[in-house]
Amino acid sequence: MILQQVWTLKVDRDESLPTDVHTEWIKYHTQLPLLNVALATKISRIVYWTDSTIVLHWIRSSSHTLKTFVANRVAEIQTKTNTSDWRHVPTDDNPADLISRGQTPKEFLCPSIWKNDPRWLLQSENYWPVWSPTPVVDLPGQKKTICLRTNISDNTLLHRYSSWPRLIRIVARCLRWRHKQHLSAHLTTDELTAAHNRLIKILQSSRFAPEIRILQKNRSEEVGGKLQPLNPFLDEDGLLRPKHPIILPKSPVTELIIEQEHRNNHHTGTQATLYAVRLRYWPIDGRSQVWRTLRRCVRCCRANPPPVEYLMGDLPEARITESRPFTNVGIDYCGPFYIKERRDRNRRKIKTYAAIFVCLATKAVHVELVSDLTTDAFLAALRRFISRRGYCATILTDNGTNFVGANRQLQELRTLLQSDDHQDRVQNFLADRQIQWRFNPPNSPHFGGLWEVAVKAFKRHLIRVFGTELLTFEHLNTLVIEIEAILNSRPLTPISSDPQDPPVLTPGHFLIGDTLTSLRERDFRTVPSGRLSSWQRIHQIKQHFWSRWYREYLNELTRRNKWDKGKHNIREGTVVILREDNVPSMQWPLGRVIKVHPGADGIIRTATVQTATSILDRGVKRLVPLPIHPDPDEAERPHGAEEVTNDTPDSTARI
Question: Domain Integrase catalytic: where (predicted)?
Fold first, then answer.
């Protein structure tokens, strides 16, 4: 008992015992010599008593019928003792319970059942308890009930094929085989008609069995549900009709019929396909069935890919974090613009470009004219920007493939941005200054929407003023800087109609403390220095601008103006169409998604797609999933099931 307490307390060997345990051990230690005096009796015979009938059954049975752990110990008992010496004692007369309940040596030596009882031990063996084991054959059997639940897949003939004409011809072959006719002969019109009617009857019986039984009893007035407005009847072939068309329930077979009519009519729309189907059939909820079926047409999807909506991602951290203007910037090019070499007439025209730098936090704009599309010109513009605005931490740019388009002149810019020499030199230049350069996914201009808007606004002002006039470089540079000031004076928040409200916040407030197009300030040179604002006042004004930026500007960015919902069904293995600009939709390449790249919110934003010729990275807005196996029922349909017949090829049975 003391050891059990030590194990319960988890006392290590090197630790001293707790006070209560140590006191109890001293008590046992002083009383142990009393046991030596009491054990001076010689034992001539041993009878083993136990109150467990299960143990007695084990000892009297063969050990090989027991479990391994029990069998090993029972075999040892049977080897060292005689099984006839094992007897049963009632629990109330079992002295061993005193030990299991726990007693001190002194209490153990007091008069108790261990020393004097049970009283029948003092009598002859005829008065000892007798235990009669129950034979195994008399024990009631215990059976375990196991419930096995399985998913039964529907592999009926109606759901195994993806072509309505092929299904009809297969049923016609089965009917010919049933009547023991020649299987190799061509199918006749009567046989195809009989197979068609048999399929329709099976389909209607599986969905409209109660209504058919009512009509067979000539009680058409009792027909209810969706068939009631149609006033159906049974024709001579037993088919359910409202007048002339055949009624079709919602089923995969109805979808096969709609697909066939859709292909026969050269992939017409929902209305025209429904009209073609109703010439012979009357599908229940026909318009919704046709619309749902046409959505899964691969050829229609390739010809007119549906718009794919995805939830707009959260704003990047650089957009919502207070930082010095132009700490994180986005860069984009626009142009070319033509200028004249000198002021004289008939001078040759020279191309020039504009590099737009946009601050991600304040939307401030910085514009630099670039003489040509070379790495040296780009690095020179970047040096001028850094010298005026300070070092930045991150530069974001579009990928070079974003400039693929109808404009041949933008091809030069794409070539520059994709060249290894340009990227190496720019990367080295930025790495020396501890500036990170990141690219957006190819063909995903919405990732750089902030600087795309700035480019659009810059070109709008420039073209309206510039027009077709040829300016010199100095005149164009002056105009560009004036437009830059106008862009930095745009309000960041809606303008209030209350004259008591503070002036609207603009990017210029973060650059010079006011809008760049505002009137000149009052001359403070004649004001005594004691009345001028201190440096703390200037810092307070700066913090006031940022507090308004948090309170007014960021609240406007919280609401998603578009892409506020979407179904995210792009995953690895999805077959997709890659949207390409200025290319007919039927020529857009097909690919399979081999890797997805979730954003910070866990929603997939970009994916790696493998096409027949290359591996590309694309934003999910440029991918259109093909409607292949849109639901589990179609996904489980065997692909090769339609080839089990030796039917004569039919051009109308193609998929």
Answer: 321-515
Q: State the Rg of the chain over Cα.
A: 46
pLDDT by residue (tens digit) across 446-502? 677 787 888 888 888 888 877 777 888 888 888 888 888 888 888 887 777 676 777
The residue assigned the tokens 């290359």 is 614
Share of the chain above pLDDT 90, in %: 8
How far is CA 159 from its chain centroid? 30
* DSSP three-state, residue 247: strand
Which tens digit of pLDDT belongs to each residue from 24-78? 878 877 777 776 666 666 667 788 888 888 888 888 888 778 888 888 888 888 8
- Residue pointed to by tokens 């309000």: 491
- Neighbouring CB atoms inside 10 A of 323's CB total 17
Partnered with residue 151 across adjacent β-strands are none
392-394-400 Cα angle (round to 5) = 120
Look-up: residue for tokens 């899964």? Answer: 296
Residues 103, 107, 112, 115, CA torsion sign: positive
Phi, psi of 597 (to 5 degrees): -125, 95
- Of 455, 464, 286, 283, the C-alpha closest to 358 is 455
Which token pair is 330? 């986005």
- Helix runs in 48-188, H state only: 53-59, 68-80, 96-101, 105-109, 164-178
Task: Report how far residue 160's alpha carbon sits from residue 170's, in angstroms, rounded to the nearest whole number.
Answer: 11
Domain ranges of the chain: 1-44, 156-296, 327-494+502-512, 574-625
| Per-residue confidence (pLDDT) for residue 469, from 0 to 100 | 77
The pLDDT, as a whole number, for residue 400 is 55
Hey, is 251 helix, strand or coil? coil
Give Cα separations from 118 to 121, 132, 631 (angstroms).
6, 20, 78
| Fold match flag (156-296 vs 327-494+502-512) | no
> Please, which residues have CB within 8 angstroms of residue 279's CB and are 6 or more apart in sequence?
245
The yes-or-no verdict on residue 597 having pLDDT over 90 is no
| pLDDT value of residue 643 | 33
d(CA 276, CA 294): 14
CA dihedral 63, 68, 74, 75 (to 10 degrees): 70
pLDDT at 410 > cutoff 60? no
Question: Beta strand 436-439 with 394-397: parallel, antiparallel or unpaired?
Answer: parallel
Give the contacts of 601 (CB within 8 A, at least 6 positions apart).
313, 314
Range 200-205 average pLDDT: 88
The CATH class of 156-296 is mainly alpha
Architecture of domain 327-494+502-512: 2-Layer Sandwich (3.30)
